[in-house]
User: Fold this.
Amino acid sequence: MFCEAWLSQRYLRAGKKEKIISLTALISMIGIAIGVMVLIVVLSVMSGFDRFLEDKMVGTNAHLSLEFYSGLRDPDKVAKQLKLNPHVLGVSPFVAGQAFIKTNRQIFGIEVRGIDPKLQPDTSRIKEYLKAGTLDISGNEVLIGEELAWRLGASLGERITLISPVTLAKTEFLVKGIFNSGMYLYDAGLAMTSIKAAQDFYKLPDLVSGLAVKVDDIYAVDRIKAGLYSELSSASQYEIRTWVDANKNFLQALKLEKVVMFIVVTMTTVVAAFGIASTLIMSVLSRIKDIGIMRSVGAKTKSILQVFVFRGMAIGLTGIILGIAGGVGLALSLNRLVDFISHLIGRSLIPKDIYYFNRIPTYINPADIGLIVFSALAITFLASIYPAYYASRITPAEAIRHE
Assistant:
């Protein structure tokens, strides 16, 4: 094993007649490095966006929602039971429903959510998202998203009219606050009012739709959900929905997009692997005499195979190490690069009024890097197999005939 490794490293050094082979090996190494680097940067940015969007999802909505089919009359009793679970950090009641808004030219629907302004910060970050006004609402006062406010032409202190789908009666609400969650879906289609106002609006006397729950680990919600089903006792029928359940299609689309991007960018590594294969084939053809000598002195087929596989893997591994260093470095300094380009062109590459953020979110996931390294090593190994196998089949007689 050590002898084969030593020979493979010796063959990597360029002889006088092998400059072109060494150049091809260098190009292949750079190709592997670029492929790995691009994969790391792309997946880091996509993972960063995933986390950014997940953060926005759980910032406006609860981690878990207990939705009672016929409403809940005594939310405090159920909330006390929920708080006995060590994973539960906060509980708040809510009333949820739909409403119509009529403007001069159109009518459209929005979600109306009745909240307790004192308990709501325990289960969401709506207080952080407030851009104007206050969360302290009561009576027919309402919080609306910035996009919805822009669409209605409404500002603080003005009144908007909502139409109840239950009674078709119009109700006026005073705009008490405007929020920006960073998610267009919520900023353009969500209004929050007091629980009492929502109960009157939907004709739900003394009933709430459910309870919002905040937990200590948003990625363990399925396990916590199963535990709550076994622990909670209630006379009313209910369903527990996690933030993953509420955004399942969106999250699956993000996952599919990440997989597709991984496959597409991996093609650059495959192209570089063809370079490794061609390098090894040229090396084998130039080393037929050496192979013949080794076979004549008793070298086994396995040993010849290992020499050229090790050479191919050495080229690939060097490229992978360079790619990891370059990819991690570029991912960590991506925002500095964006700032530099923005300074050169005199405008921001990421306008905050369009994208809701002015920094590219990145997250370097060790699991992603492990997958990238494994795939690159596998591609390099497969590219090395045929040239190494061809070399191992050369006999001393063929080597003499070649000379």
